Amino acid sequence: MATASRPTRRTHDRADRQARNRLIAVVALVAVAVVAALGVYWWVFRSREPARDGAPNWFPDGQAIVFATEVGSGRADIYRMDADGSGRRVLVEHGANDTSPAISPDGTRLAFESDRDGNPEIYVMDLASGRLTRLTTDPAGDSAPAWSPDGQRIVFTSDREHRASADVYVMNADGSGVQRLTSDLANWAPQFAPDGRRVAIQVDRDIVILDLVDGTRTQLTRDPQNGMNPTWSPDGQRLAFVSTRNRRAEIFTMHADGTNPQLLVTMAAGSVIDPRWSPDGTRVVFVMVPDLQPRPGEDVRPEHVQAIYTIDVASGVVTRLSR
């Protein structure tokens, strides 16, 4: 009886192994199918998700705009486009977040913020060769670079003094000679005046002008009649800025001494931020951040997407640049 049972047991063992192998094969095929389906979703559906454009800045000839763009929750890359929104192409593409682009006054260099080395730092890229130079190496976050009119200096924000809020610093265009310009409150969005002597800064929710020669500070707005994200007109006579004085983010202009504030841009579909005055003084480029997102199953419309626009200062005509 024992001898007769061995072939039967071997037969059962062989059948069990074959069943397990078939099960493993089925599981493997299902896994491959799931991965393939996820791949299709990523490349087909995510690739169709509209890009969110922001942080625009002008090329010095006024013929093109540099900006940052991102899709989904992924990284931001830096692009340029013609002043009419055409000719969109990538300038900086990397696995990190690259943002806050600014073109040097001679049009040859791109300063930007990147976390490619572990935390936000300031980099400069030569546009002709693509050669990249890291300007800051502090373990703190360095961000929002802006060029002086002569291209010799860069202002930026940093929390390197370990305060709860950021300060504004200035350095030479090669990263040397770093100097701290502020030491209290929260300081953001510095922009050199066309005379190279003054810097407009967002301090908390107001705009302050800092004179780099004598160190005087002049506050131009007072919350709740606040001011943020200042940008100079090319003649230095006016500033454009963001304000929430009407309970939504809008763009205003004012004289460089803070007088005569005037509403420039308001958008029914969302908030407007990040103004930058064109080199010829005729336009202001800005970003519209939508108030509403599409409902599930609803088609994405232009007013659902963060996008870059310009406004003609004289006529008030608004033009969407982001495609």
Structural descriptors:
323 residues, mainly beta, Neuraminidase, 2 domains, four-stranded antiparallel sheet, 1 helix, globular
Write up this protein.
This protein has 323 residues and is mostly beta strands. It is built from 1 helix and 24 strands. The protein folds into 2 domains: 48 residues; 269 residues, TolB, C-terminal domain (Neuraminidase, 6 Propeller), CATH 2.120.10.30. 15% of the residues lie in helices and 41% in strands.
How is the topology of this model organized?
Layout: H1 2-48, E1 52-58, E2 64-70, E3 76-82, E4 89-92, E5 98-103, E6 109-114, E7 121-126, E8 132-134, E9 142-147, E10 153-158, E11 167-172, E12 179-180, E13 187-192, E14 198-203, E15 206-211, E16 217-219, E17 228-232, E18 238-243, E19 250-255, E20 262-265, E21 270-277, E22 283-290, E23 307-312, E24 318-320
CATH architecture title of the largest domain: 6 Propeller
**What share of residues are in beta strands?**
35-45%
Regions with little confidence, pLDDT below 50 for 5+ residues: 1-5, 30-47
Any idea of the CATH topology of the largest domain?
Neuraminidase
Outline: globular
CATH secondary-structure class of the largest domain = Mainly Beta
| N- to C-terminal distance | 83 Å
Number of contiguous helices? 1
DSSP, total strands: 24
- Give the rounded overall mean pLDDT: 88
Count of domains? 2
The CATH homologous superfamily of the largest domain is named: TolB, C-terminal domain
Helix residue percentage? 10-25%
Kindly name the structural category.
mainly beta
Biggest pleated sheet = 4 strands, antiparallel
